[in-house]
Every structure is written in structure tokens, then in C-alpha cells.
Amino acid sequence: MSIFNRFLKDESGATAIEYSLIAALMAAALIIAVGALSDDIKEGFTKIGAKIKAV
Questions:
Q1: What is the C-alpha to C-alpha distance for residues 35 and 4, in angstroms, rounded to an integer?
Q2: What is the Cα 17 distance to its own chain's centre?
Q3: Per-residue pLDDT tens over the stretch 28-51
Q4: In angstroms, rounded to a whole number, what is the distance separating the alpha carbons of residues 13 and 9?
């Protein structure tokens, strides 16, 4: 039974899993933000391109 108890108390892989979950959540938030702002970003680059052509 001591092997089973040691297995339950072992937390060496928990930190890596937590960091990977945080990274996945940040990536998902970034993808959602870029998707939501894509039209505004496209419009901004179009305006900049038009001003460059005018010069």
C-alpha cells in the first residue's frame, strides 16, 4: 500500500500540466481576440496603404 500512497502524494508532473493549461488558455484568448479584431486590423492596414500610395 505504501507504493500507492507515494503515487498519490507525488506532484512532480502537476506543475508542468498547470503551465501547459495556462499556455493553452492564453493561446485561446489570443486567437479569439485576433478573430474579433481582424476587421479593424484590416481596415487600419488599408488606410495606411492608401496614405502611402498617396505620397
A1: 47
A2: 15
A3: 999 999 999 999 999 999 999 999
A4: 11
Alpha-carbon span 11 to 7, nearest angstrom: 9
Length of the chain: 55
Backbone angles phi, psi at 54, to 5 degrees: -70, -25
pLDDT of residue 7: 72
Q: Please, which residues have CB within 8 angstroms of residue 41's CB and are 6 or more apart in sequence?
A: 34
The whole-angstrom separation of Cα 28 and Cα 15 is: 20
The one-letter amino acid at 53: K
